[in-house]
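Lay summary. Proteins are chains of building blocks that fold into shapes, and those shapes determine what they do. In this project we predict the shape from the chain. Here is one chain we studied, written as its sequence of building blocks.
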Amino acid sequence: MHNNCVVFTTHKLNVDIINYLLYIKDEIRGIMDLLILYDNSVNPIIGSDYPDFNFCFFNSEKLNGFFHQNNKLLPNTLMPLIECSNKYHYKHYLLMENDIILNGSFRSFVEKINIDDNVDYIHIASDIEGGPEKHWPIKYIRNNPFDNLYFAWCQLFYISRKLLQEAEIFIKVNDSFHYEFLLPTIAYDGKFIVRQFENLGYNFQISWGPSKKYEYKYIYEKMKNTFYHPIKNLGIVDFVHTKRFE
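And here is the predicted shape, written in a compact code that computers can read:
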């Protein structure tokens, strides 16, 4: 067991995603562990059917707070991540969604973030919307105790167990912050060590969508050390298309 782990969150496990997971597992070997944070509400599976992987299961329809303020457009992956962290005790968790792709070496990426043992939060700084006030989930926030409000896309982030525990405590008092506001705001407001992926040499082509736009960018731009999201068609990704599992 390593000190840190990749947490890959998904609600399905088709051939392309399995190949993606096998690729990630190969890339992080000897550096981090891999956990699959699996929503078993739509496409239920049995973990023992996939002996190559370790699962942390949850049910989005039953997990309190998963759909932020009961809005189906606002999944809140922080909630199952907190549950998972209470079961699997790592120092850091690198959470990534199943539709974010790096054009570059994933191994080099995890090596870079694994070096800094003291960091509490590494996040995406790029925001094409232009700031927290431009993101509509801000309307749900009430009783804001912070002097400054921050936003960070959460398709990919690296978080310490210490910061996760702080977020869990806050949510019990005030659950009105969607986690794309909550995590960066707590991190910058408190005594936490914060970094940005961009300062490690990575770029982001990322938004809510549409997926065809970002799939086009991925195919035809292929910028080095750049993450693309959303990529719904994993068949266009070279390392996913490589046959590992059929």
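What the prediction tells us: The longest strand covers residues 4-10.
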